[in-house]
Design brief:
184 residues, 33% strand, Alpha-D-Glucose-1,6-Bisphosphate, Chain A, domain 4, alpha+beta, 7-stranded antiparallel beta sheet, 7 strands, 3 helices, globular
Length: 184
């Protein structure tokens, strides 16, 4: 192995494997109104940035309780691979925390949706996503793309959630190829 190859491997070894993305949206609805769309995974069909219809062959399966901690959603398809989303914690109407795993658990994420009431019947919803791509070469090299893609997805999800909570039409979702495709 040459010096150049050795240096390349060292650089790859120190590249980060963790991402962290946060986006926020002010919504003209109470925290209670918004929360009703969060802790029931079936309700995510109305606002999630990841929709079954956007990915050929993707089918969601629901398990656990109908809402709150333990409720889960799984999927398996050729276009997206496998995945699992599980609600981990719920503090109505202020916080929902969930975990996601993809590629048989090699890629993992933890998300929170926080609701902060503001003046004038407005609620600030902040979606925080952080995860790890594992210790693979592809994961390390693709981290900037994942962060960019997840940022776009969180923005789309928050815009759609605001529309649903405010009683407006939801913008038509478009898939983001670099991001996993769970319906939330």
């Amino acid at each position: 192995m040459g010096v150049g190859s050795f240096l390349f491997l060292i650089v790859l070894f120190v590249l980060p494997t963790r991402w962290e993305v946060a986006r926020a949206q002010n919504v003209r609805a109470s925290a209670e109104q918004i929360y009703a769309h969060l802790d029931d995974l079936h309700a995510w069909k109305a606002w999630s940035p990841w929709q079954e219809s956007a990915y050929p062959g993707l089918v969601f399966r629901y398990a656990g309780p109908p809402r709150g901690p333990g409720a889960q959603l799984s999927w398996q398809s050729e276009s997206t691979g496998d995945g699992l989303l599980r609600i981990e914690a719920s503090d109505p109407p202020r916080l929902l925390a969930f975990s996601m795993s993809f590629q048989k658990g090699r890629i993992r994420a933890r998300d929170t949706l926080r609701l902060e009431p503001l003046a004038g019947g407005v609620t600030r919803v902040t979606w925080h996503d952080q995860g790890t791509l594992g210790r693979t070469l592809i994961g390390r090299l693709s981290l900037p793309l994942v962060e960019q893609s997840m940022g776009r997805d969180l923005e789309r999800g928050l815009v759609a959630l605001a529309a649903v909570a405010e009683g407006r039409p939801v913008p038509t979702p478009t898939p983001t190829p670099a991001a996993p495709a769970p319906a939330r």
